[in-house]
Amino acid sequence: MPFRSRATLESWLDEFRTTREGGALIDVLVQDGDGGADTGLVIVPLKNVSTEIYMQPAEIGDDAWVISFGARAKAFELSPAQLQGYAAELALAASLCQFLQEKSLGHEEPAD
Question: What digits encode the pLDDT tens for the residues 77-96?
Fold first, then answer.
């Protein structure tokens, strides 16, 4: 079943950074897929909130991507400026997820 390798995701993230402002803190973490497949998990750390966003295909081989928010133990408060920063971070994450979804359309990983 096709998947996006960590190397592929890192190259797509590099491309995203050259075409859009921001994203310096975004990273691809190792995530072992079925049968030891070299898949990756895209992580978006947030400056204004003590949680993170991660994104991945809805299922291995799926062109659709989903965004998940890390769990939080308690509510948080933000100033208006912090909320604007949080909104900008969310917009960047949404843009990246859309970019990854578009790159995934018809993508097949090369055989080893």
Answer: 899 999 999 999 899 999 99
